[in-house]
């Protein structure tokens, strides 16, 4: 079967937002073995949307749309679909109750315009949205199938995975099996170079996906039964693991902080964190791990020199001689937070997050990460390119990854 993607939204045509939805959906439908020859972006205009549907169905069996499901007058994807299929729009009480609940939870007054989000073409299967106020739907007739999804990726992706993917899989004669390996500490291009001979494979495929501070490698195989698909992945996974080594921190649906948290909990290693440039991001990530309260003792944001001296015992002379952004201060911060709390581990960050404050000797993006473990202190110097948000986020990820690497080789 042939699938075509139609993304609705004038903001896409104007370049106000990047169309990541098409990339995501294309990769998922390819996994299922569907052919796809065209993608369309169309603005918020009834006639042009219906014409896009007409053209798409002239060459495809299934059309997947994103966008145009909001409460405003120019959100007309469902209405255009209803006219195209010759169906009336009907009110769905369950959708309206869900929308009301979302507004009540957020403490926001609901408006009458939101009611339009609870109307759907007659006979469609409604796809209830757990992450927003715009449900989707599936419309079918004797020869055509349309999946209508919301535009924001944080809503579209979960809804696609929960509803659209299983629906599409019913039209595929292949079993798709995927395994994800999670990598941290090296960039996407470096990781891809290390396994470049595997990236050209057709079945299984190996695809890298860059995330904030990490890379995900998804190995996907297609076969006529599940066991064959799993067996096909195994030798490819072994080669990826051999090439990437300890850059791989986990697999499947996990996170760096969860993996590190598990090690700390399993070994009963107490940790405290002192942060300057990251402003609490390291602590915030670590406390995402369930059960971390058993070993996470304290997180301090010691942004000023005075706080570093008062709370961590950083020597005033060290600050005057080397400055707050220095190997020496990162070391004293890590040691100070650990000793203050009687912990096995102290983790610290200090750096220049920008956009101001950099010098030729200490440019924006310079960060020192200190790690105290049972009396020994190591400091890692890193340099990060990007804006303030990226520098802070990436520094937090690198700090946790540096801790991970020390822990896995720790006796």
TrEMBL record:
Pfam families, sorted: CinA, CinA_KH, MoCF_biosynth
Q: Which Gene3D superfamilies match?
A: 3.30.70.2860, CinA-like, MoaB/Mog-like domain
Name all MoaB/Mog domain ranges: 4-170
Signal peptide range equals: none
User: Which SUPFAM superfamilies has this protein been placed in?
Assistant: CinA-like, Molybdenum cofactor biosynthesis proteins
Q: What InterPro entries does the record tag this protein with?
A: CinA, CinA-like_C, CinA_C, CinA_KH, Competence-induced_CinA, MoaB/Mog-like_dom_sf, MoaB/Mog_dom
Q: Which HAMAP family match?
A: CinA_B (MF_00226_B)
Database matches in NCBIfam families: cinA_nterm (TIGR00200), molyb_syn (TIGR00177), PncC_domain (TIGR00199), PRK00549.1 (NF001813)
PANTHER family for this protein: NICOTINAMIDE-NUCLEOTIDE AMIDOHYDROLASE PNCC (PTHR13939), NMN AMIDOHYDROLASE-LIKE PROTEIN YFAY (PTHR13939:SF0)
Q: Which family does it belong to?
A: Belongs to the CinA family.
What name does the UniProt record give this protein?
Answer: Putative competence-damage inducible protein
Give the encoding gene's name.
cinA
